[in-house]
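Async update (no meeting this week)

Hi team, since we skipped the sync, here's where things stand on the single-chain job. The sequence we agreed to prioritize is pasted below, unchanged from the tracker. I ran it this morning and attached the output directly underneath so nobody has to dig for it. Comments welcome in thread, and please keep replies under the output.
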Amino acid sequence: MSKLLISITHAKEDTDRATVGFVVANASAASGVDTVIFLSTEGVRLSQKGYADDVHEEGFSPLKQLMADFIDAGGVIWVCSPCFKKRALNEGNLVAGATIVGGAKAVEFLTTGASSLTY
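Output:
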């Protein structure tokens, strides 16, 4: 099975990149590819319930819907632990399908043959 890790490093400061990252992730998951989103730097803010509720880039589905569709398609969201801690976010407020992980988890996935994209 093919594997793809999509690193999303942006949130509300660049909603276009955050949105397109999830659009591509949905296309990947729908194609049967083992797809992981790795949220890092500012992207970790997307891991918080309610944060993406008002993000809607013209021409795309709302980000909240794209995120839900990704999880429904079997996608996985990993959240960079140091980035999350640096921003003092709430671990009890994670969106469905999100797990806090260290960078080693992403490296492990990549070394098993996954390709990577960054937004």
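Quick observations from my side:
The chain has a mean pLDDT of 97.
The domain at 3-118 is CATH 3.40.1260.10 (Hypothetical Protein Ychn; Chain: A,).
Reply here if anything looks off.
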